[in-house]
Specification:
Rossmann fold, 5-stranded parallel β-sheet, 203 residues, alpha/beta
Length: 203
């Protein structure tokens, strides 16, 4: 029997909680993952960056192995989401870095995917795509993905970060299971870009 991984679902609760609820409904039926999500909204903004990172990584993300980021129109501007992404990418004292899976919601009118986990990901999820284009310019990523957080764009530019970006219409029980497993299996090899300072306020 395949291992079921513990995941943290990050989203803008006011706008996009419906999508998290839908993922949890799918999971109730198919038992794809263990939900380890905890609301990080009550963290003191005045804490030093390192204290915030440690608190989220070791107390809120705990032993989660994959972070699923649900991207709506305001996601990129939320400081708590930036903190959750950053904390997912660091090796904490108790808990190590997670794999990252980005799901673009319908409100963003998404048209593109990024499939860094090899041919199997491309063949299973995007059989209709005949050819793939490699991108190495930030401006091009920003044009394709105008609603993705800056920290995610930073890491799409790093070939060893292996961040999958898909669209909501691709999410069903089979694809969700595949994407979580791809993200989990490659997380140890990920070399994330952590150079961007953490947001101190909503943009």
């Amino acid at each position: 029997m395949a291992e079921i991984h513990k995941v943290f679902i990050s989203c803008h609760h006011d706008n996009d909680q419906w999508a998290k609820d839908e993922l949890l409904k799918i999971n109730e039926i198919y038992e794809i993952f263990i939900d380890g999500s905890v609301d990080t909204g009550d963290i003191n903004d005045d804490l030093p960056d390192e204290a915030i990172r440690q608190k989220i990584r070791d107390e809120y993300l705990r032993d989660t192995k994959v972070t699923i980021l649900l991207v709506g129109t305001e996601t990129k501007n939320r400081k708590h989401i930036d903190w959750e992404i950053y904390s997912s990418m660091i090796d904490g004292a108790k808990n190590k870095k997670s794999g990252i899976l980005v799901i673009q919601l319908p409100s963003t009118n998404p048209k593109y995917h990024t499939a860094p986990h090899g041919d199997k990901e491309k063949e299973k999820l995007y059989p209709e795509t005949a050819s793939w284009v490699s991108i190495d310019k930030r401006t091009e990523y920003e044009e394709r993905y105008p609603f993705l957080p800056n920290r995610i764009i930073d890491n799409l530019l790093k070939s060893k970060a292996k961040v999958s970006v898909t669209t909501w219409d691709k999410i069903n029980n089979i694809n969700l299971n595949l994407l979580i497993n791809f993200s989990f299996n490659d997380k140890e090899e990920c070399e994330y870009d952590l150079s961007r300072p953490m947001y101190r306020k909503n943009l």
